[in-house]
Specification:
two-stranded antiparallel ribbon; 589 residues; alpha/beta; 17 helices
């Protein structure tokens, strides 16, 4: 797997000197002697396996800034937690004999000291019930049952019941068997608890089982997979069923159950597409893993084995759909899906993702990647130039780019590659999309193709189980007819968001001429809003430049003057209050 960091791509190495830990369906671990590192190494063979142990010493330490290296998705998550700028090699002999007991947060997987009760990153309780009640569970309590506040939230979720079961859900517990065998510094981001947290949230809310009906799972056939993947790729994935542990890339793992899990995921997506197109289901949600949108014609990467969205699109066309729309809102670009359909004008692929000039994984998805040959104009990339993108920018891009082009395309069915790693609280995606934001985007897409809509789970991994479970629940509630908690009436994008949308429109109007009117209108709006953007950025810079402690020391007068000017507030609104002991001052506004 390649990822560009500081303009270079190099081989990513991972330390495999840790003890093997076999993960089961219930998250337990096995310490059987047959699972030793030597036995596993003997069983792991073939080009699928990356034997990193021969090249990396178990005690090797890579120092920050010593060399540039390519980073995988998992490396991006683990980065920074244990880096140390100082050379502390003198302490290493002592550290080898120190045993520090720790526990991994069930919500975000960050390691914490054993005597800590709450995760120092996300604040989740050490014995949280999130896998039992989903995001409804209290994050600050170890109580098994829901508290009064959570029960109130559940009752609101169960309030608006529908009489007909029009939404289908695809899920199979055998997909939980796909897990990384060897424990690294963190539990792997793509872990079974993703599905457990979503399933627990839906069950607690009475949505599934209850208000949706299940689709009987089946494994996809080789003939169906050949419509999206090369034979060598299919055989490589199947080969992993004979191996205890294998890796396609340093962060894309497989065990003996992974090939079946991938076939079940693809089979459920294909059958859901057929159910929806035939009218037996109004819409559907594929609660599947492993994810798929990074899997290309010949390669597995980015935690993805088979491309579930591509297989579903092919199944829909086999069932009679002439035009298929795929909208990918995962924070990472779906390079695999784009590769599969880049020459196909019957499938419109639209992706909204962080790009940052190709510096964000996987580095593809620039605005000028518009498809090739007959497929030119049927690939639309909305590449965000920074982190922190939230509801306003996403909804604005939907209003000005996604919905206009999709409506002109007039799809027979719409498929969402629903990664939730752009959600608020995900420390890898570092964006700010709320559950209501996801619900509103779902509601907007539901107006296309006569409501024939299939949502397929992609990313939004272990980084924050509350984020992925609450976002997925909001999307499914939109599918069953419950609108978002609020609707964004007047959407004002950020300056970067506006510029990205204009860049996309300028390129795409060569293939969709009707976009010219939208482009000219937004250009005029940008000119009128440019002063407002400049003022907001200036105020932000002024606020950031002021050390907070100035307002408590001898520079409090200077802090007051600059802070007042930076925020543009009237000096009469600043009320200085001296505490009785005279030790500090505060600003009341």
């Amino acid at each position: 797997m390649k990822c560009v960091i500081n303009g270079k791509a190099e081989e990513s190495v991972r330390n495999h000197g840790h003890r093997i830990s076999c993960q089961g369906l219930n998250g337990g671990s096995c310490h059987d002697e047959s699972c030793s590192e030597e036995n596993i190494s003997e069983k792991s063979s073939g080009f699928v396996v990356n034997n990193l142990r021969r090249s990396v010493s178990p005690h090797a330490t890579l120092r920050k800034g010593r060399q540039q290296k390519e980073m995988t998705l998992e490396d991006m998550y683990n980065q920074g937690d244990y880096d140390d700028d100082d050379d502390d090699s003198d302490w290493e002999p002592i550290q080898k004999h120190m045993e520090i007991r720790k526990w991994f947060c069930i919500n975000c997987t960050v390691p914490n000291f054993d005597n800590d009760v709450y995760c120092y990153i996300c604040g989740e309780h050490k014995e949280s019930g999130i896998l039992r009640h989903g995001f409804f569970a209290s994050s600050i309590s170890q109580e098994a049952d829901l508290r009064e506040e959570e029960l109130e939230l559940v009752q609101r979720s169960k309030g608006n019941r529908t009489s007909d079961f029009a939404t289908a859900i695809g899920f199979d517990e055998r997909m939980l068997l796909h897990s990384e065998v060897e424990m690294k510094t963190h539990p792997h981001p793509e872990r079974p608890d993703r599905l457990r947290a979503i399933a627990a949230s839906l069950a607690t809310a009475g949505i599934y089982p209850g208000r949706c009906y299940p689709v009987t799972p089946r494994e996809i056939t080789k003939e169906e997979l050949l419509m999206a993947h090369a034979l060598e790729h299919i055989e490589a994935v199947d080969l992993t069923s004979r191996l205890h542990i294998s890796y396609f890339t340093p962060d894309t793992y497989a065990n003996e159950h992974s090939a079946r899990s991938a076939r079940l995921a693809a089979g459920l997506c294909a059958d859901l597409a057929s159910e929806i197109l035939s009218g037996r289901a109004k819409n559907g949600f594929a609660m599947v893993r492993p994810p798929g949108h990074h899997a290309g014609i010949k390669q597995a990467m980015g935690f993805c084995l088979h491309n579930n969205a591509a297989v579903a699109a092919m199944a829909a066309q086999a069932a009679g759909a002439k035009r298929v729309l795929i909208v990918d809102w995962d924070v990472h670009h779906g390079n695999g899906t784009q590769e599969i359909f880049e020459q196909n004008k019957t499938v419109l692929y639209i992706s909204l993702h962080r790009h940052e000039g190709g510096m964000f994984y996987p580095g593809t998805g620039a605005a000028d990647e518009i498809g090739t040959m007959d497929g030119k104009g049927f690939c639309v990339n909305v590449p965000w130039s920074r982190q922190g993108v939230g509801d306003n920018d996403y909804i604005f891009a939907f209003q000005q780019v996604v919905i206009p082009i999709a409506s002109e395309f007039a799809p027979d069915i719409t498929i969402i590659s629903a990664g939730f790693d752009a959600a608020r609280g995900d420390p890898l995606g570092c964006c700010d999309v709320t559950p209501d934001g996801y619900a509103q985007m779902t509601h907007m897409l539901n107006a296309l193709s006569g409501g024939k809509l299939l949502v397929i789970l992609e990313g939004g991994f272990v980084y924050n189980l509350r984020s992925i479970s609450s976002s997925a629940t909001a999307v499914i509630k939109a599918l069953i007819g419950e609108g978002p908690e609020y609707k964004l009436e007047k959407v004002i994008p950020s300056k970067d968001g506006m510029e990205t949308v204009l860049e996309v429109l300028k390129i795409q109007l060569n293939y969709w001429p009707f976009l010219e009117n939208i482009f000219k209108k937004l250009q005029q709006q940008l000119e009128s809003l440019s002063f407002q953007f400049t003022e907001q950025e200036t105020r932000k810079r002024r606020r950031v430049a002021l050390p907070t402690w100035w307002k408590w020391g001898r520079k409090r007068w200077l802090y007051n003057v600059l802070h007042k000017n930076g925020r543009g507030v009237n000096s009469q609104r600043l009320n200085w209050c001296a505490p009785l002991d005279g030790s500090a001052y505060s600003i009341a506004q």
